[in-house]
Amino acid sequence: MTVFPDVFTEMAVLLLLAAAVGALGVRLRQPLIVAFIAVGILVGPSVLGWVSANDQVDLLAKFGITLLLFVVGLKLDLHIIRTMGPVALATGLGQVIFTSVVGYLIGYAFGMTPVTALYVAVALTFSSTIIIVKLLSDKREVDALHGRIALGFLIVQDLVVVLVMIGLNALGATGDVSWTQAAFAVLVKGVGFLLLVGLAMRYLLPRLLHMLSRSHELLVLFGIAWGLALAALGVMLGFSKEVGAFVAGVSLASTPYRDALGARLTSVRDFLLLFFFLDLGAQLDLGLLGAQLVESLVFSLFVLIGNPLIVMVIMGVLGYRSRTGFLAGLTVAQISEFSLVLGALGLSLGHISAETMGLITLVGLITISVSTYMIIYSHPLYERLAPWLRIFERRQPHREAMQDAVPDDAVPQVILFGLGRYGSGIARSLREGGWRVLTVDFNPDLVRAGDPMGYPVIFGDAEDPEFIATLPLGRVQWVVSTARERHVNLSLIHALKGLDYGGRIAITAQSPDEVARLEQAGADVVLVPFADAAHEAANRIMRQDFVKQPLLQDQ
């Protein structure tokens, strides 16, 4: 029996309830994932039984998962792995292997079948990139050494999860076919798939993105369409929609439009993921969860304690301080949305039961909730535990000392918005002065042409606060805007202040009358191109006159 007169009303009530419980979660400093799963349990058959539009919710949930993997691929920053070097790969792979092996043994000890124990063990290895980036951003620690290391091994985890999904889909499709034949089929189809995408990256996507970027709406629409199209192609080839969507994101990750596209898709992704977590919560049986309370507590303690410890051990061996290892290790003290996606995939393939899916979800709820507070209060927690954590540190932490001594040359010192004649002139002069400059413009012709002086150019809008949040602001000394529109500059200043940007801001004004308004808003320097140029011209004339005047007197 349906509670609501139609699907629209049901959706409206679910969204209102999710917003209310989400607000409570934010108040408690909890990630929204926990709140949304709780809402799903509340409206599910175990409690209120309000969910009847299962097909609609399931479809939106699939869209959400597809966009999640698309955005992960889109933001895949291999530069972080390169700059972090061995620590990202060693820590990421080391933690995955350790957690998988020990988790499998724990599951087997609880009497699970080998396949079930393997699924649970693998699910325990993945940490939430979304949650970690949000928490580190709130604490302004993304650009800290432990933040960059954490992002590095989180990227490694993301790559591993895609490979695992490929393997699981191959396993599910074997049937009567041997493992050798299945592996060969996956290899052939995978190579063909990547070759097709590679040709599109080489010949199609650059021209298409350049044309579509003249309209932000069309750019976003194409991004969604491209992600869904390759997701569907992935399903047709026997991989999964997740793998196809990830490859779609990677295919756009090397373009200058990725940051702008990712910023605009993040909100859409988060909205659609709401339905995945609602659907997940609605499918859980509270009775089954209660029956697995002991197992869930044991696995949760293993994730909360074991994962950070193995990270600290690996980083200590590599020559990092115990403090850095501890702060980075706390970021893996939870399982992620990918763990839930993996469990849902195993359930759909018939590899695991609903009880196992419930166990993974319960471990997720416990570890995400507890680890959030561990990360928020990481520094006081370290001060209390510091005397016992020294055992994870070498006498001479050479690796960290070396990284502290050598700056990261890839990090820009100046971010400049606007590549018109005035902006290009400023960028060129800064470059000649030895400054590292990252330039941003929303003119696709300028972005496509790049710059012969060698500074990078990316596509973006100074009025988009979500795009501003994607920029590497942590170690930037100056943000310069050469936009003439006052509302654009005021929006940029407001976004920077909201992100707690600690550097200085230089803004361009159209007339001297705007200077006071922009300075009051927070600009450190206000540039007035015509007035400044006139003043400089007068100074040059006067300097020339000063030089020539004595010659006239001598005559």
Structure, described:
The protein has 555 residues and is mainly α. The protein has two domains: 62-272 and 285-349 and 379-392, Up-down Bundle (Na+/H+ antiporter like fold); 414-548, 3-Layer(aba) Sandwich (Rossmann fold), CATH 3.40.50. The chain has 25 helices and six strands. It has a six-stranded parallel sheet, sandwiched between helices. The longest helix is centred in the middle third of the chain and has 34 residues, at 179-212.
Give a brief outline of the structure.
This protein has 555 residues and is mainly alpha-helical.
**Total individual domains:** 2
**Portion in beta strands:** under 5%
- Gyration radius from CA atoms, angstroms: 27 Å
* Secondary structure: helix percent: over 70%
What are the main properties of this structure?
Rossmann fold; 2 domains; single chain; 25 helices; 555 residues; globular; mainly alpha
Set down the secondary structure blueprint:
Layout: H1 7-27, H2 32-43, H3 54-74, H4 78-84, H5 86-109, H6 114-123, H7 129-138, H8 145-172, H9 179-212, H10 216-236, H11 241-253, H12 258-282, H13 286-291, H14 293-317, H15 322-329, H16 337-349, H17 354-376, H18 378-389, H19 398-405, E1 414-417, H20 421-432, E2 437-441, H21 444-449, E3 457-459, H22 465-469, E4 478-481, H23 486-498, E5 504-508, H24 515-521, E6 525-527, H25 529-554
Parallel strand pairs: 1-2, 1-4, 2-3, 4-5, 5-6
